[in-house]
Each structure stands twice: as C-alpha cells, then as structure tokens.
Design a protein that fits this description.
Elements: E1 2-4, E2 9-17, H1 20-36, E3 40-47, H2 49-54, E4 66-69, H3 74-80, H4 92-100, E5 111-112, E6 115-116, E7 119-122, E8 126-130, H5 132-138, H6 146-155, E9 161-162, H7 168-183, E10 188-189, E11 192-193, H8 195-209, H9 221-230, E12 234-241, E13 257-259, E14 276-280, H10 287-298, H11 300-309, H12 317-321, H13 323-328, H14 332-341, H15 352-369, H16 373-388
Helix pairs in contact: 1-11, 7-8, 7-15, 8-16, 15-16
C-alpha cells in the first residue's frame, strides 16, 4: 500500500494462498502487468489454505491492497465495508462479458446486495480424482452415483484404497454438498439446516468412513492428492477440490485425472462451489491501480494464457474451453465442467463464515467421538441460530 518516494513507484501488496495454483499465476501476471505499467510494483505474501478459508478480512485490509477471497465472506464485507465495490470502477461491458464467461455460478457468487466485491480468477468445486492408470489396470468402473460408490469400495483389490479429504474444513464442504444433492439448493431455510437431510447425510458419511483410508479424517485436498500422485496406494477420491496442477505432466511422480463426483440422480445439484475471487481492500490508497490489476487478471485473454500457463486454475470459461489448455491438463477443464455448472453456492450473509468455521469443528469432533447424528444436527442448528441472532443482519 506504499508509494516509493525515491523512485515514484507505486507498490501494491497482495495476499495469496500457499499452493503453486494460488500464488504462481498471480506472480506471473503481476510481472506482466508491471512490464506494461512500469510505475507499478506488486508483491505477494501467502497464507495457508485454512487461513484462506478462516482468516477474517478485517485482519488483512490494513496491510493488503489485493486480497484473494472465498465467496461466503461477501456479506460480512458488505456490512462492515471491508472491500471496495467494483461495479462503479469497471465498465458495464467488461462486467457483462465476465458474467457471460463465468464458470458455473462463480461470477455471481461475488455479488451481495447488488454490489460486486471480487472478480473470479480461479474456479473450483468438489470433483472426483483418480489414478486412471491403476483404474484401467484393475478393470473397475468409476462410480457415477453415491450408491455406486459403496459398490466401488467392495470391488477394488485390497492393496488399493479410496481416500476422501475430511479434515474439519473439508468434512464441512462434503456435508453441505451431500445435503444439497439430497434436498436441493434450499436445504437451509430460516436459519435452519433441514434436520432429516442433515441426519441422513451424517449417517452416510459415517458409513463411508468404514471403507476409506484411515487418514481421510485428518487430510485436506492437497494431502490426498499428494499421496495419490506420489505412490500407488490411493487410486480414487470421490469428493476433493480439483487441482489442475496434478493433471499436468511433470508436476508430480504420477498424474492424477479428474472427473465429476458421484451424485444423487434425483436432484440437479453437483457439489459445493469453491474457487477464488480477487478483491480490493476498502483502505487501499491505490485502489485505481488495484482495480486495474484485478481486471487484468480476470480478463479472458490473461486467464486463457498467462494465468493457466503458470499453474493457475482459471475462473474464466474461455480458458476452460480452450483446446490447448485442455491438452496441457489432459482435459481437466472439460471433464469437470458439468460439476461446475451445477455447483451449490453457500450462503453469504453476515456471520456465515464464523458459523461455518465453528460448525465444521463441531461436526468433525462429533463424528470422531461417535456422537449421534441427531444431536450433531441439533447442536449445529443451535450454533447457527446463535450467529444469526447477532444483530440479525442477514438473510439466507
């Protein structure tokens, strides 16, 4: 957020997250932007994946001009005026183009109360990951439904295993995904998670754990994918946030392929939406330049080229449909696009991000202790009502 008086260089500072997918494309696009605009320098710090999902925005806005962000923060950002509304700083034609080029609901997920608080630069959802070479070797068919998944467990040889990232944060994402698959996108009403749906999903998750690699309850997506790519033991992960890096030649010892997660064929919902938006601190002293950079990163040409070529997982449909990008990533983008298009978007109202952090820990601890699903859902809804009652500032 500084201006170097000696050289008159405008210094922007950004915060990314700690994976090559998170920081490498931003460093590359920053270098490119500074070549076009020598008066601007952009430096990036990184934070852990958990910090990306949990750290309050108010802890960042005094230090950083550019903030990578998850869409459930939009409501809190709006109420507390933490981020710069972008609709007044960018041309309508540009925003309409980005909306048309949205990968599933990514673009709209950064709107709240008529204001756009981030531009989609990275698109993701829970998808399935597989060691295609090993799946072919043992002649098994990948599951298309959750019912198929239970049959799949029993068909794979004992030397192989299925893993599913179910650390607290990812257990939460899976729980919401399965609830949305079973009861539709509106399974949360009036500050309450549908109890019957929640109980059934928790009971099912407990059954899955009987078949999964024992470390699944502790692992995050990166840990699961690292194990899949480095050894020949884990051959499938049914619900894991996709990382294009692992589908590229040379990134790891073994290539991991990605496809659509198992679904409930009774509904038209896939899995939970992830991804990354690039937002501007409301306290940035160089907001115009920060907006200019954010729009540069989000535009189709940058996303299709520099962003993807430097390990990024773009948020623009033009990049996802590009043939050379799909060849580079062994059809990663085409193979999971259906999941992206039908993704479930989490609530964004104030208090949701704090609720999901504590709710995730509640479920994670309860499942490990063997707590009855009925009690877990009851406790979860009581926690939700407590956060909803703090100022009563938002709606579902």
């Amino acid at each position: 957020m500084n201006t170097n008086k000696a050289s008159n260089i405008i210094e922007l500072k950004g915060i990314a997250w700690d994976h090559p997918r998170g920081y490498e494309p931003l460093r590359a696009t920053s270098k490119e932007f500074s070549t076009l605009h020598p008066e601007v320098s952009i430096a990036w710090d990184i934070r852990s994946l958990k910090e990306f999902g949990d750290t309050p925005i108010e802890d960042l806005i005094d230090t950083y001009d550019l903030i990578t962000i998850d869409h459930p923060y939009m409501g809190q950002a709006h109420v507390d005026q933490l981020l710069l509304p972008l609709e007044g700083s960018l041309l309508d034609t540009f925003l309409k183009a980005l909306e048309t080029q949205s990968v599933g609901p990514s673009f709209k997920s950064y709107y709240y109360k008529g204001h756009l608080y981030a531009l989609p630069i990275d698109a993701a959802a829970l998808v399935a990951a597989a060691r295609e070479d090993l799946i072919t070797k043992i002649h098994v068919e990948l599951p298309k439904t959750r019912a198929d998944l239970f049959r799949f467990y029993k068909r794979i040889p004992k030397e192989y295993s299925v893993a599913w990232p179910l650390c607290a944060t990812d257990l939460w994402c899976s729980f919401l995904s399965l609830c949305a698959q079973d009861a539709g996108r509106n399974f949360i009403k009036n500050g309450t998670i549908d109890e019957k749906t929640g109980i059934n999903v928790l009971d099912e998750l407990k059954k899955h754990l009987q078949y999964l690699h024992p470390e699944s309850i502790n692992w995050n997506p990166i840990q699961v994918l690292d194990h899949m790519a480095s050894s020949d033991h884990i051959i499938y992960a049914p619900f894991v946030f996709g990382y294009t890096n692992y589908s590229r030649e040379g990134y790891a010892k073994n290539r991991v392929c990605f496809g659509n997660s198992p679904t409930n064929p009774k509904t038209n919902v896939s899995t939970i939406l992830g991804g990354v938006g690039l937002a501007i601190s409301s306290k940035s002293r160089h907001a115009n330049w920060a907006v200019a950079f954010a729009s540069y990163v989000a535009n189709a040409q940058t996303q299709q080229g520099t962003y993807t070529n430097n390990g990024g997982q773009p948020g623009n449909l033009v990049a996802w449909q590009d043939e050379s990008n799909n060849r580079l990533c062994h059809h990663f983008f085409k193979d999971i696009l259906k999941t992206m298009q039908k993704a479930y978007v989490r609530p964004q109202h104030p208090g949701w991000n704090q609720f999901q952090e504590q709710g995730a820990e509640l479920l994670h601890k309860g499942i490990q202790l063997g707590t009855a699903s009925e009690k877990l859902v009851k406790d979860l809804n009581e926690l939700y009502r407590a956060f909803r009652g703090e100022g009563n500032r938002g709606t579902d």
